[in-house]
Write a structure and sequence with these properties.
elongated, 4 strands
Length: 375
């Protein structure tokens, strides 16, 4: 009898919370609209791929071999070339950002090759964009090496002592969208789990309804579960929406299992909800709670989870901080399950850390959720 009463009270609290979520327009925005906008932004609008690189070509030699090299650059899928007559013209184009680099074919290029020597080339790259500069350098070196093998001398191929064959595993097309979209899902789930729930109890305090709930016979566990379960369902709905959008809209392969995805998402969502509820039960103002959720949840997930910036390239202090963030573990697991498959040697430690963190945070929420007005 007491157990049935306990469950009815819990269901009443959950029903109240679901109704409050349904009546709040921001809930639809955060759970449905915002995830799609975020995915569209990072899937279609933002890319780390090089695209077409604009390159000026200054051919000071004018011989047959320099012409074939310039033609190879012009017909390359990576470059859009623009012939220039002198160095001043090329420098002006790069200064005005009309081109990103200048390929200079020296005047004695053909003569040196005819004598069996080494032809002189110079590649000037705009260093204000380091990533793009690296792309131009790498693509140019590869194209020049291929031209050497096929065009010197008299059409005979020069066999280098070492032949390197490069293949991309897990992401054969080497497109950034394949790892940006799973990372964006991590940020979205953190946003829903931490930022939204950081306002749950703070909103009740500001509206004066927390005192009314304290006057009821509901227990602390019922209050905790009544807030936790609705937002957990909301977060899992958003996760399902994001996963479907990743596969259908952005053609991200899904090589893992749905059960592994469900398990990883559930444990991470519990840790994110625990963090948000701990903020909410500790701070009684919505504005302060929202700022705390933003700075402790959303921004670290965006900047320190490996979503955009490689963790291994960070300073040692920041690398140590990332080991304390559940978003960094979840981001690694999502990329693995989408691009590689079920790798439990990665999933196991991540699940253990996120599960322990969720238990600690929810335990702190339960401890601080005291039914007294003077606390």
């Amino acid at each position: 009898m007491k157990q049935n009463l306990w469950l009815r009270q819990l269901m009443a609290l959950m029903s109240k919370e679901f109704q409050q979520i349904a009546r709040d327009p921001s809930s639809y925005l955060v759970a449905g609209v915002l995830p799609l906008i975020f995915l569209l932004l990072f899937g279609f609008g933002i890319t780390l791929d090089a695209g077409i690189l604009r390159l000026a070509v200054l051919d000071q030699s004018g011989g047959s071999r320099s012409l074939t090299l310039a033609a190879d650059f012009a017909h390359s899928p990576w470059f859009e070339t623009r012939p220039v007559g002198n160095m001043e013209q090329g420098a002006r184009l790069m200064r005005d950002s009309d081109v990103l680099g200048i390929l200079v074919i020296r005047q004695d290029f053909d003569q040196e090759l005819a004598r069996g020597g080494a032809g002189s080339l110079q590649l000037l790259v705009d260093g204000s964009e380091p990533n793009t500069a690296q792309f131009i350098q790498s693509y140019s070196q590869g194209l020049i090496s291929n031209w050497q093998r096929t065009s010197l001398p008299g059409g005979t191929a020069l066999e280098p002592p070492v032949n390197l064959e490069t293949r991309f595993w897990y992401n054969p097309t080497a497109k950034s969208v394949q790892f940006l979209v799973p990372g964006a899902i991590t940020v979205i789930m953190t946003l829903i789990g931490t930022l939204l729930t950081s306002l749950v109890f703070a909103r009740e305090w500001e509206r004066g309804t927390m005192e009314a709930m304290f006057a009821t016979p509901v227990s602390r566990m019922q209050l905790l579960l009544g807030k936790l379960i609705p937002y957990f369902c909301m977060g899992m709905f958003s996760m399902a929406l994001c996963a479907v959008a990743a596969v259908t809209l952005f053609a991200v392969p899904f090589r893992g299992s749905l059960w592994a995805l469900l398990l990883l998402s559930s444990v991470f969502m519990l840790s994110a909800l625990g963090q948000g509820l701990f903020i909410s039960v500790s701070l009684r103002g919505q504005l302060v709670a929202a700022e705390a959720g933003l700075f402790s949840g959303f921004l670290p997930a965006l900047l320190l989870s490996g979503f955009v910036f490689d963790i291994n390239s960070m300073p040692p202090v920041l690398q140590a901080i990332t080991k304390l963030l559940p978003a960094s573990y979840f981001n690694t697991c999502l990329r693995t399950i989408f691009l590689t498959g079920d790798v439990w040697s990665i999933f196991g430690p991540s699940l253990l850390f996120m599960g322990l963190l969720a238990a600690v945070l929810l335990g702190l929420v339960y401890k601080n959720l005291v039914k007294r007005l003077d606390v």
